[in-house]
């Protein structure tokens, strides 16, 4: 009885934690989620969020390093990201005398900034729907259980040949 009560209580308490997740395709944002975003308080137009032909928020959001996101927040290219995304770079700059992981670091001028050779950010150039092309190419594979069939390297290669 006690377990049943705890289960029901946990289930009821978890209800407000429902997340509205999913992958929204930026070119289809207006049809997919935009009205709801405005109802929740968004004051930008759909074109300010995403435009293929004009500057928009998509131009400020970058892929940081190998897979995190970052945001460009200045005309000079200052990038913000999450702590865990920059952890390795912060660790490489840390020493016994300067424990940036614990104490943080603030460059007061450009000359005080610490370089991170090899760290890159990637901008969205354009978004193309390559679904039909990729699905057609996948149908040509004889053994659908092969590793190549599901490898992201293979699928990315297919998508790049289309673009």
UniProtKB/TrEMBL annotation:
What does the record list as GO biological process? proteolysis
Q: Which keywords, in A-to-Z order, does the entry hold?
A: Aminopeptidase, Hydrolase, Protease, Signal
Short name of one Pfam family for this protein?
A: Peptidase_S46
Picking any one GO molecular function of the record gives: dipeptidyl-peptidase activity
Question: What family is reported?
Answer: Belongs to the peptidase S46 family.
Which PANTHER family does the record cross-reference, listed alphabetically?
PERIPLASMIC PEPTIDASE SUBFAMILY S1B
Q: What is this protein called?
A: Peptidase S46
Query: What's the source species' lineage?
Result: unclassified sequences, metagenomes, organismal metagenomes
